[in-house]
Amino acid sequence: MKIAIAGTGYVGLSLATLLSQQHEVVALDIVPEKVEMLNKFISPIQDEYIEEYLAGARSGSRELNLRATLDYKEAFKGADFVIISTPTNYDEKQNFFDTSSVEDIIEKVISLKDPNITMVIKSTIPVGYVESIRKKYGIKNIFFSPEFLREGKALYDNLYPSRIIVGSKSPEAKKFARILSDAALKKDVPVLFMNSTDAEAVKLFANTYLALRVAYFNELDTYAATKGLDTKSIIDGVSLDPRIGTHYNNPSFGYGGYCLPKDTKQLLANYRDVPQNLIEAIVKSNDTRKHYIADDIISKNPDVVGIYRLTMKTGSDNFRASAIQDIIKYIVAEGKKVVIYEPALKDPEFNGCPVIDDINAFKKDCSIIVANRITEELEDVRDKIYTRDLFSRD
Q1: Is 353 tagged catalytic?
Q2: What is the dihedral of CA 170, 173, 174, 180, to 10 degrees?
Q3: What would the CATH number be for the domain defined by 2-194?
Q4: 3-class DSSP state for residue 201?
Q5: Which entry of 50, 105, 259, 390 is annotated as an active-site residue?
Q6: Topology given in CATH for the domain delimited by 204-386
Q7: Which whole-number Å values give the CA distances from 278 to 24, 267, 281, 284, in the listed order?
Q8: Local structure of residue 355 (DSSP, 8 states)
Q9: For residue 56, how far is the Cα from the chain centroid?
Q10: Is residue 317 scored above 60 in pLDDT?
Q11: What's the pLDDT at 319?
């Protein structure tokens, strides 16, 4: 088949790499540099498996039928499926996802007047969005299929998916699910078919539960630290209950990244006419945690606060909406000098704070080093490190 993919972030590029092993895949993007890199089989994002697969295609040891383009007509013409994976940022003023990039792609597909193209939305969208789009444009050939990927492990999570969910029960939906399951290395992947509105809810509720779990262990840590208790002992004792488990329990500076902050806020917006307490508490808890971390750092009265990485997850070069950015704002607002070490940044400053590209100079200049996760690179300055990392993992 020919499959077009609009957007080459973690979702789009992982799918493009995955599906190009068995199908013709054309990736559409609006950034010329990304298109040029992909046509040379060079990954524009940091992801171990994507980089490995593209390197294999570059050397000729792995066959990927993949090309990239800036021309939507070249990408979409004759496609069986157009997968939409463009960014949907949360609009704080409107209390809703900005879905303009998704609708731009939908309108481009409609303009081709090809009834054989099926559109599959992978971008995160509000509950009820697909139904509203079907009515707005008078179309039926579109459905939602949520993704459940981790930044830095996106292709791995497509190769070994926890489940495949497709928001339609049509023949095209079953064909799409088969395409995904055939490309996966994991066998007997659970596949669920439902309407798109239910699938949209699955995505937002799943991510909000993950945010809830992060917030829970962060609040546990805040309590223990405030009362002089041993956070690790408490978490170990709590997590050994098999109903709770030992996963996703490492305290952090707050949940961040591209998905959890915006998805929790979008779900809360969807609750505007439904009674709730918990969903709003999850959103507020994250803000409270970031204020606590900032206040705790300031209480040490450091001369220079060093921020070790804006990226808060190992194996990722993405720091969109990372929790540390708000913490930096709070610290700067208190008059503290902040410097940043972030190899992914090429600019000499970030939000008014100097960026130091020499790790040794960074270690020397800072009186306290704030690190969401400990790495071997910081072992020689452990006495300077401020972290809530207990298990040396994400």
Answers
A1: no
A2: 180
A3: 3.40.50.720
A4: helix
A5: 259
A6: Rossmann fold (3.40.50)
A7: 45, 11, 5, 10
A8: B
A9: 25
A10: no
A11: 74
